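Run log // design_07
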């Protein structure tokens, strides 16, 4: 028998009707392997920018408390407590609670138990109380201004620097000094006729008679003293050092 003729060189044999699936490097079918995907990013809220140090945060809080105490005490008419016609009477620098009114129908004087400010600046009983009203009001305004600026520094970056903090401390010292001057001037008006009527006709300058000091006087003076002694010192360390940008 003769040998069969050789196969053509391009013939590769019959094709496999069920080809083997492609496999990955670890031997598993590629269809079963998962392409690694990036993990979902967690959105974290950004921290609020601040231009104050830890001492500055304490300074801002204490400044707000001092300003609130001084302003509340200045507005409240409870600096001096007395009595008139068996009714409690209280005074502030520019306000009063309970005042006498002439009742023409009964031809007698009655006490109206209401609180209110004097009708005009000139109606304040003494010149010392008028000066006290002006200087104490200016001091409270300065303390409130610095307190608001300090609160803004908690939320705004590069607002309060070391220099700005020291200037703010100086303004607080001036505000406390003005309030302290007003508190020192207030007893000079105790010799007015209106005050003497409420103090048993015994009051003089720096002499209370039957009256006594009210809580609003201590509140106003205490807020001013704290602002002068503590807030002024904390203000020197309240601001962060500013970054130096090359130009």
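design_07 sequence
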């Amino acid at each position: 028998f003769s040998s069969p003729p050789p196969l053509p060189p391009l013939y590769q044999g019959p094709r496999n009707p069920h080809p083997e699936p492609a496999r990955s490097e670890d031997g598993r079918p590629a269809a079963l392997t998962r392409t690694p995907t990036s993990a979902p990013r967690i959105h974290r809220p950004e921290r609020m920018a601040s231009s104050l140090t830890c001492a500055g945060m304490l300074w801002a809080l204490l400044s707000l408390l001092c300003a609130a105490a001084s302003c509340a005490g200045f507005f409240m008419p409870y600096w001096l407590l007395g009595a008139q016609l068996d009714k409690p009477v209280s005074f502030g620098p520019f306000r009063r609670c309970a005042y006498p009114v002439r009742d023409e129908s009964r031809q007698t004087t009655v006490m109206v138990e209401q609180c209110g400010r004097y009708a005009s600046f000139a109606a304040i009983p003494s010149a010392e109380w008028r000066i006290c009203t002006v200087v104490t009001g200016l001091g409270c305004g300065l303390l409130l201004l610095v307190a608001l600026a300090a609160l803004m520094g908690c939320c705004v970056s590069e607002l309060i620097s070391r220099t700005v903090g020291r200037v703010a401390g100086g303004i607080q010292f001036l505000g406390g000094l003005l309030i302290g001057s007003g508190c020192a001037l207030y007893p000079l008006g105790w010799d007015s006729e209106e005050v003497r009527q409420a103090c048993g006709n015994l009051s003089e300058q720096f002499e209370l008679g039957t009256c006594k000091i009210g809580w609003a006087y201590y509140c106003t003076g205490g807020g001013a003293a704290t602002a002068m002694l503590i807030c002024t010192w904390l203000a020197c360390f309240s601001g962060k050092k500013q970054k130096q940008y090359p130009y």
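The two ends are 100 Å apart (CA to CA).
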